[in-house]
Specification:
The protein is an alpha/beta fold and 400 residues long. Helix 1 packs antiparallel against helix 3 and helix 3 runs parallel beside helix 11. It binds pyridoxal-5'-phosphate.
């Protein structure tokens, strides 16, 4: 089962013009028709392989969408110019004025800000809950709720969503379960576990080279068609399109994603164990000390491990900053937001990617000001990296 997605990606066979082994990039925003009637027909009924205008679909984005649908085991997928482009389109496609969403309270700060500050303009209300508490999730649902929204492994606290149980709740109440799987491609298969819609920021692990933004919605053919409907589709009408040139480069990187995820996970597990043995407060889903170790061990695809993200608690903001500066000086990686890059990236979420969340709410959800999130890179010699990291941890007094 777990090799199925990798096999499907392996089996993609796209011939380019002149027999190129990569599909030819279609560098056109619009497409010609040999008869006016056939153009009119395409406005009425979509036909596979026929293109009208690139905001609707274009060949390169369709190839990339096919690869991502294979990754997540869905019928179809729609790519966008950023993860937020995909998230906002899904929400505005599914929710109307007066509707409500039950969402995990620990989610990416941009999504949180969109839910909290932007959706009220459309009279859409979001009830934030501790997604690991299924009773709280059920209590938050009312007759206006349309969707349960969560991240498979959450940003930045690395909480684990019990997707099968959330799916039971959402099916019983006729809701949609939407899962952002950005932190765990290959590691979690949300669709198989019961999600209706799976979203990714392609900016992270999937592309893996931090040279572009991108997003995807993986779902049924019916939902993807609704999103690009010329009259009422959120993706079509809001227009968060990915450029075809970028789609071509991301498509090539997907073919190494299975190898990269294994290496990110292996290296993160190594560092997490060393940190724990050294008495540093570390959170990593692959450690038995993680609150949901049992759950993720049941849910994940074993050969891909527990993904590449871990957090350490540097206890206060200043120490977190000094540690990150030192780690950059030691060339362990970069002090930068984002994740899933081939080099290690680290940032302090309380003052960066989660700064949209008010301080009192950060405290309530356990997001300490000294939290350092690390996305562990693809280092061949991870022991050497650990030697460098120890030096930094000792210098700030987190290790003896
Ligand atoms: N979802 C998660 C879990 C993220 O971490 C991010 C960005 O950090 C996003 C969505 C947004 O993606 P993008 O920056 O590509 O818009």
């Amino acid at each position: 089962m777990s090799k199925e997605s990798a096999n499907q990606i392996q089996d993609l066979q796209f011939f380019g013009e002149y027999g190129g082994i990569n599909p030819s990039i279609t560098d056109s925003s619009t497409f010609t028709f040999m008869s006016a009637r056939s153009m009119e027909e395409l406005f009425e009924i979509e036909r596979e392989g026929c293109y009208l205008y690139s905001r609707h679909t274009n060949p390169m984005n369709a190839y990339l969408g096919q690869a991502l649908a294979s990754l997540e085991g869905t019928e179809a997928a729609h790519v966008a110019g950023s993860g937020m482009g995909s998230i906002s389109s899904v929400i505005l496609q599914l929710c109307n004025s007066g509707d409500e969403i039950v969402a995990a309270r620990t989610i990416y700060g941009g999504t949180y800000a969109f839910f909290k500050n932007f959706l009220p303009k459309f009279n859409i209300k979001v009830n934030f809950v501790d997604i690991t508490n299924l009773e709280k999730v059920e209590t938050a649902i009312n007759q206006n709720t349309k969707m349960i929204y969560c991240e498979g492994i959450s940003n930045p606290l690395l909480e684990i969503a019990n997707i099968p149980e959330l799916s039971k709740i959402s099916r019983a109440k006729n809701l949609k379960l939407v899962v952002d799987n950005t932190f765990s491609p290959f590691v979690l298969k949300p669709k198989e576990l019961g999600a209706d819609i799976v979203i990714h920021s392609l900016t992270k692990f999937i592309n893996g080279s931090s040279d572009t933004l991108g997003g995807v919605v993986c779902a049924s053919k019916e939902f993807i068609s609704q999103m690009i409907d010329v009259n009422s589709g959120a993706a079509m009408l809001l227009g968060p399109v990915m450029d075809g040139l970028r789609a071509a480069s991301i498509l090539k990187n997907i073919h190494t994603l299975h190898l990269r995820m294994k290496k990110h996970s292996e290296n993160a597990m190594f560092i997490a164990k060393k940190l724990e043995e050294s008495g540093v407060r570390v959170v990593y889903p692959g450690l038995e000390s993680h609150r949901s170790y049992g759950l993720i061990s049941e849910l994940h695809q074993k050969e891909y491990g527990y993904s590449g993200l871990l957090t350490i608690d540097a206890e206060n903001h200043e120490r977190a900053n000094t540690l990150m500066e030192l780690m950059q000086e030691e060339n362990i990686g970069y002090l930068a937001v984002s994740l899933g890059f081939y080099k290690t990236l680290f940032s302090s979420p309380g003052s960066s990617t989660s700064s949209e969340i008010p301080e009192d709410e950060q405290a309530e959800m356990g997001l300490s000001s000294g939290l350092v999130r690390m996305s562990i890179g693809l280092d061949e010699d991870i022991e050497r990296t650990w030697q460098r990291m120890q030096k930094c941890l000792r210098a700030v007094g987190l290790m003896k």
